[in-house]
Design a protein that fits this description.
The protein is α/β, with parallel strands linked by helices. It has three helices and nine strands. Helices cover 16% and strands 18% of the residues. Keywords: Leucine-rich repeat, Repeat.
């Protein structure tokens, strides 16, 4: 089990602790973070990454969208090819423009009514049970039509 935490960011970013910039300051400056294909199964506390705009978490083992309440500045979220079965916990992502969820286990597209800036939703190639089709919640569908 690999949890996405600031420790994992430190390990993968190769941050050298320079005297003029401690790791906390470094985290606050990050705008793009690529942690794809790292066997991550859950998203931990990333609240120090206040300026994060683009988050790449594709090709992992993530089961649930969580702990993104801090991420009000995220514009692009890449979560394709994980184990996500429901779209949830996105209401704080007020600036989210592009959401990539292809290759997951989502059966119902819902929970997008609070994501007012969403311009692109990529939800192709879901691993659906035999005979089932991808369903769209009318409230989410209407909000996507407006945005």
């Amino acid at each position: 089990m690999v949890r996405l935490t600031t420790d994992l960011i430190a390990k993968n970013a190769g941050h050298k602790n320079r005297s003029e910039e401690d790791f906390g300051q470094y985290l606050q400056k990050i705008t793009h973070l690529n942690l794809s294909d790292k066997n991550i199964d859950s998203i931990g506390d990333l609240s120090f990454c206040k300026n994060l705009r683009v988050l790449y978490l594709y090709d992992n083992q993530i089961n649930q969208i969580q702990n993104l309440d801090f991420a009000s500045n995220i514009t692009h979220l890449y979560l394709q090819n994980n184990h996500i079965s429901s779209i949830e916990n996105l209401s704080s992502l007020k600036k989210l423009e592009k959401l990539y969820l292809g290759g997951n286990y989502i059966t119902v597209v819902e929970g997008l009514d609070k994501v007012g800036e969403l311009r692109e939703l990529h939800i192709e190639s879901q691993h659906l049970p035999l005979g089932e089709k991808l369903l769209f919640d009318p409230v989410s569908l209407n909000s996507l039509a407006v945005s």
